[in-house]
Amino acid sequence: MDEGGLEQVRVQLQEFAAEVFAGLRRIDQRETGVRYLRGLMLDGQRKSMQPMAARLGVDHQQLQQFLTSSTWDVTGVRRRVATSAVGVVSPTVWVVDDTGFAKDGPASACVARQYSGTLGKVGNCQIAVSVHAACDAASAVLNWRLFVPESWDETCVPDETGKVANTHARRLRRQPVTLDEAGKKKPHLRKEVPREELIAQILARRAASKVPADERYRPKWLMALEMIDELAGWELYPPLLTADAGYGQVAEFRQGLTDRGISFVVATTSSTTAQPGHAEPTPVAYAGVGKYPTPRYPDPARSIKDLALDHGAGQAALVHWRERLPAAEGGDRPNGTLSGHFFALRVRPAGRSVREGLPPADDGVLPDCWLLVQWPPGQAEPSDYWLSDLPTDTSLTDLVQLAKSRWRIEHDYRELKTGLGLDHFEGRSWIGWHRHVTLVTTAQLFLTQLRAAVPKAAGQP
């Protein structure tokens, strides 16, 4: 958006900012907040502080101080943004996802060599987990968390026996060798750091980036549940939740949603194990000592891929789930609807994690749910799988439309990164990162609000 475009919506921006920044006590903080939003929405390749300050005609230290050392409450702003976003979007689903922020150096908060779907490989980056409200017409971010890798948590450093204090951390494996390009073993080149020195390095990095003492490594699915709980504390509740297989394959995550009364349609992997929906446990003979055993299923659980193969590709029906978006200017993408071949069957997810998460029972029966399968014609096996706890009378079309509703989030990330500089923050502090992404989210919500009122308002298509 250029200066002229911003001037046309100046009154709307002031009214919007007055609501979002209502909790900021000082007038200079509220003014700088509006200024930062203007900098994010103004045209320009970089949305880091110095380029934005140059376009705004202010000293970049004013923006830097606002992000890193000012006293305003970022949680209060996030709460007002999330509440407003739900009102603007009127979501049919919430979506859990994560995204990567590529970094060159090691000093930014929680940066590490880790896998990023954004990069498509292991790279030096930060990872953020996000919760979005979405419908077919719009979407908006409700909450953010910065993922804390094991390498940023001294409680994940193993002691002399290999044990770690962090209950969420997997046991770290020492790898004395690596593989070269030909696949042959070669000596491990990295020098092993003594435990005390490694802990001191982690503590120094955390102190330099001002990572709060209570922020520790935990899996991303648990961070998502924490954000859902925080949003519930703000009286915001999902109508239904979707997530990709990185979350959906985790039995504890699905059980966490069930415990919170949240319906879900989540992607999962072909190796997820289950019993057929019609399977019933059989009694086990009492050995004469100890507790009476619970009934057990006569056959071992199988992968959902095997269950889908048994069901057969011939059971798949053509389902249309939404209209194809208009092609970008100059594009040649055809119009029409997006469609694919699907079938759904009832299964009973199995595995130790499933059983451990269930309330006590003595009948041995696993709860059943939907297994939704996409099987493209001519392919030897299915391409995608989803699990859902929606009622048994849910139609196949409804299951497919909900499973495919995650597409809106790619638009969120594209606008947030390409248009609003989500990943352009160059500061190193924990609070600076969270304030930047909160303000970027605020700017996106303002543009979404404009588009809702005037469909051709400025913003990413």
From TrEMBL:
Protein name (database record): Transposase
Residues in Transposase IS701-like DDE domain copies: 19-325
Listed Pfam families: DDE_5
Chain segments annotated as transmembrane: none
Classification of source organism: Bacteria, Bacillati, Actinomycetota, Actinomycetes, Micromonosporales
PANTHER family cross-referenced by the UniProt entry: TRANSPOSASE
Coiled-coil region: none
